[in-house]
Amino acid sequence: MALHDPNEAVLAHVGGQHRLFIDNEWHDAASGKTFEVRNPATGTVVAHVAEGDARDIDRAVQAARRAFDERRWQGLTPEKRADVMWKLAELFERDARTIAEIEVVDNGMPIAFAEWMVGSVVQGLKYYAGMVTKLQGRNVSPALASCRRLQRYWPLLANSADFCSDLLTAGGPCCSRYATMCSPSSAPARKRRRPVLAFCQ
What we know:
Ald_DH_N; 11% strand; Aldehyde_DH_dom; Ald_DH/histidinol_DH; Aldehyde Dehydrogenase, Chain A, domain 1; oxidoreductase; 8 helices; two-stranded antiparallel sheet; Aldehyde dehydrogenase domain-containing protein
């Protein structure tokens, strides 16, 4: 079986500098360490990525907490949040082939499955972008007939499901968290980070 030959944009991304994306900025690991990432199809070293540790995790969680407390995301109107999510979906569509090929080099999955996966992220972003303006609470029967109460849910934390692709985990389940005003943080598999870094870019 012939190996998939990545295009120039993929090679440029794979061979670029891979740092940690925390608080909307790129950072070296606190330790200064990096590690090798190999193409599973060929075994060749294709990248060096910052090796985060507990200090970097703490910094990322604290940044997510600050973003939530400062209402950087949930302080936007529903219409603005929907616009941002729709724009992200359009960027994914524009670069769908390149992102899929990055996943192939990083993960070793077939290109057809990688393209389906990227398409699923696009669909999820568009679906939840449409839901942002339709989130609502529910009426709760009050103790007093003259009162009316509305119950709303404000999620604070959410867990990620393991999957064969960290891109699908970060871009798929996180769509609902963006829609419900969470401030997610993502910790992809140690040697499968480049698609998620492309997501951040």
